């Protein structure tokens, strides 16, 4: 069974577009925001 048969093409295109948009957002995020997100994630994992 082919990948294309399992997942409809329009759904795949939507997902690819969203991922491309996320990558663009990451590029334009100021470094400070990125560091803050990493610190939040680290404190979450430390608490568990």
UniProtKB/TrEMBL annotation:
It comes from the Eukaryota. Residues 36-48 have a biased composition (Polar residues). Residues 15-25 have a biased composition (Basic and acidic residues). Residues 15-48 are annotated as: Disordered. This is (California timema) hypothetical protein. It comes from Timema californicum (California timema).
């Amino acid at each position: 069974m082919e990948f294309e048969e399992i997942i409809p093409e329009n759904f795949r295109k939507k997902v690819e577009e969203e991922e491309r948009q996320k990558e663009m957002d990451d590029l334009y995020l100021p470094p400070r925001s990125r560091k803050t997100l990493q610190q939040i994630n680290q404190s979450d994992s430390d608490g568990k």
